[in-house]
Amino acid sequence: MKHRRISRALAAAAVGVALLAAPGQAHAPADGAGGVGDSYWPLDGNGGIDVQSYLIRDRYDFDTRRLEGSTVIRLRTTQELSSFSLDFLLPVKQVWVDGVRTPHSQSQRHELRITPAAGLPAGSLHRVLVHYAGKPDTERYAGERNWLANRHEVVTMNEPHMAPWWFPVNDHPSDKALVTMEITVPRGKQVVGNGRLDWRRSRGETTTWRWSAAEPMAPYLAFFAAGDFTIAKGSHDGLPWLVAVSRRLHPADQRASMKLMRRTPQVIDRLEDDLGPYPFSVTGGLTTSLQPGFALENQTRPIYPAVGAGAVWLVVHELAHQWFGDHVAVARWRDIWINEGFATFMEWRWEERTGGRTGAEILESAHAATPASSTFWSVTVGDPGPDNLFSGAVYDRGAMTLQALRNRVGDEVFWRLLRTWIAEQGGGNATSEEFEELAARISGQDLTGFFAAWLRTPAKPASTSANGLG
């Protein structure tokens, strides 16, 4: 679901669509593109559609690892279409568009092409129902096999791709939508998802859990976890929170993980001091017994591996993403530093505010300790490429960029810049260039050379005041 606060790049594309559909111009319906044009993954997302909401109804069998279900997608066309695509990996049984069974194909396994009998007018609303069944752990896309499960637990978490393993989707951050899920599992198992638990209902040997999120999200941020969990919940300053820890962990790890998860409301408080109000209606976290090798900022409820009670920095990072990455999402994957660099910088800020080193000290130390010959400096953070999307440089050099900017423009201007960024771009998508333009506007400075040195030059920035150093 696109919002008014969209990037200028996306706005320009929308204008192009509007021009194509101008009154009085005759043109034939077209096949919607099999991608939104992201240079990193050309098949991600799809042209011609803007999804408003997903209602996902999935059933998962732990013994066979089979997932079957149906998803209702409500979408608006952004051009006149003869066909359109969704991103999905499991075999599809049937597709219905506006109550009419509709031909479909999966010639490219990742692309589900749907061809209604009559063209779909530009700007029209439609209800698409897809039935499917398969084994997600056998599916692969873009070199990734992302299904994370064993006989006791399953968690749908990964980035940049996860949704196509469990529901048909317009899989690009530029198309945020509302997500509701009804997940059916064997009776006795629990399900945790984004947002709030609306209800759970048992019938025979199964229980269905319905979770719904009040705010639109990028598709990769939608998740469910099913298994055996200890759940704690409450409300802090009017903000409901729910955390969960897998009971499949060692008892000592369970205790440590729950202690860490319960820090969530406190961390939110501190982040709000710098960034303004938490952007969603609920918060929380989940610790899995599986071994993903990373944590992920799933909207309203990040997921963590078992890392011990002392890893507050990791909770800070994932909760900072609720502002930077979830509320303000990237318009293109090349802009990933405005997710990861910002979240890493907020780790530095946490250390500063809890009596540790200041952000300026961390920057100076990291810059001095990393020789110019290090491959760390060879990553172009403003366009790292798909192979370096989660390179350490994207995180750390991204954070260094922000602290250097803070040094250069001063504290008052810097924090006003971050709050303005959230206020202007919150709920939508943005680019690095838009952040750079805003920084120049708020500070009144020409920052072209500064951002070139930090984001676009594969070399160590010189220790100059112009670069926020020295």
Binned, the helix content reads 25-40%
The total number of structural domains is 2
What is the arithmetic mean of pLDDT? 94
End-to-end C-alpha gap: 45 Å
Enumerate how many helices there are, as a single number. 10
Instruction: Sum up the overall morphology in one term.
Output: globular
Q: Give the CATH architecture of the largest domain.
A: Sandwich
Task: Supply Rg.
Answer: 23 Å
- CATH topology name of the largest domain, in short, is Immunoglobulin-like
Give me the side-by-side strand order of the main sheet: 6-5-9-3-2-12-15-14
Structural class: alpha+beta
The profile of the biggest β sheet is:
8 strands, mixed
User: Beta fraction of the residues?
Assistant: 25-35%
CATH superfamily of the largest domain: tricorn interacting facor f3 domain
Total strands: the figure is: 22
Q: What would CATH call the class of the largest domain?
A: Mainly Beta
Low-confidence parts, pLDDT < 50 over ≥5 residues?
1-26
Q: How would you summarize this macromolecular structure in one to three sentences?
A:
The chain has helices spanning 8-20, 251-261, 264-275, 312-320, 337-353, 359-369, 392-409, 411-425, 432-443, 448-456; strands at residues 30-31, 49-61, 66-77, 81-87, 92-97, 100-101, 104-105, 111-114, 125-134, 148-149, 154-155, 178-186, 190-193, 196-203, 206-212, 224-227, 229-236, 239-246, 283-287, 303-304, 329-330, 429-430. The chain is an alpha+beta fold and 470 residues long. This is Aminopeptidase N.
